[in-house]
Amino acid sequence: MAVPSRYYRPLLDSFEERGWSAHALGRRGFEDDGIRASWKHDWSYADEIQDLADAVLKARAEDPDRPVLVLGHSLGGQVALGHDLAHQPVDGLVLVGVSVPHFRRYPYGGLGILAMGLLTPIVTRLAGHLPKPAFGAPGARTLMREWAAWARTGTPPFPVPAPVTTPTLSVKLQADAYAVSAATDAFVDLMIDPAHLTRWTYTRAAAPEGATTDHVRWVRRPDVVVDRVLAWWDEQQVTPR
Which residue(s) pair with 27 in the sheet? Predict the structure, then answer.
């Protein structure tokens, strides 16, 4: 949320150094094209999911024999699950710092999350989008209203008829201030069939010098996470589920 694709360049480089091809999907409203959320420019979770679906189809068309994995970070992980529920699933999912934003899953009664959930519909109705300095801003009014409803009610903004069966690696970042442990567990418990789920916690002790398990800044030095992804994927090939 509110992070452009160029921020993930170190992550792409790390995968490519290990022989994988990698691409960061552009984010509506946060790329260098200058288009920002406004009365004129609005979009939803469904639009973000369709963007991912288009990218997956393109990747499959380029090389039909190549497995396609999606790494979703934070909001991107929510979108990735929405994709696999609505479209042909990818071959593997990696979820980093992904959580249910429901206020009841957060400490101190989740009052900050609840306040965001209550104020967002009001602010977006007045401004046509969610303006800075709000969390996720400048955010599209429809997507942010959907997120706010999820934060208030705990109900996702897309149907979840059954947990997905895509092989999934859930990466929990220790001491993540946004995707807290209980909210991360709640997300995968709701969304992923446990027979197809691998959980892993990236601990502070495992972070090398200069790296961090911070919700956003882990991307700057992602090698530990990338190595775990490669090891997990190798495990899937040895013992397919």
Answer: none
**Rounded to whole angstroms, how far apart are CA atoms 158 and 81?**
10
List for the chain the helix, strand, coil content (%; round to 5). 50, 10, 40
Nearest Cα to Cα of residue 91 among 232, 224, 186? 232
Reported as a single tens digit per residue, the pLDDT across 112-166 is 999 999 999 999 999 999 999 998 999 999 999 999 999 999 999 999 999 999 9
CA 180, CA 101: separation in Å to the nearest integer?
A: 10
Say how many domains are in the chain. Answer: 1
Q: Which of 162, 184, 158, 154 is nearest to 172 (CA)?
A: 184
For 210, the token pair is 């200069």
The whole-model pTM stands at: 0.96
**Which helix (H) or strand (E) element contains residue 140?**
strand 139-140
150: CATH = 3.40.50.1820
CA-to-CA separations, 193 to 74, 103, 162, 169, 197, in angstroms, rounded: 20, 24, 8, 12, 7
pLDDT in tens, 170-179: 999 999 999 9
Beta strands 197-202 and 69-73 are unpaired
Task: Supply the range of the domain harboring residue 31.
Answer: 5-238
Contact 81, 104 (CB under 8 A): no
For residues 179 and 158, what is the distance between their CA atoms, to the nearest angstrom?
Answer: 20
Give the contacts of 209 (CB within 8 A, at least 6 positions apart): none
Close Cβ partners of 149 (under 8 Å, ≥ 6 residues apart):
117, 155, 157
> What are the structure tokens assigned to 54, written together?
């288009």
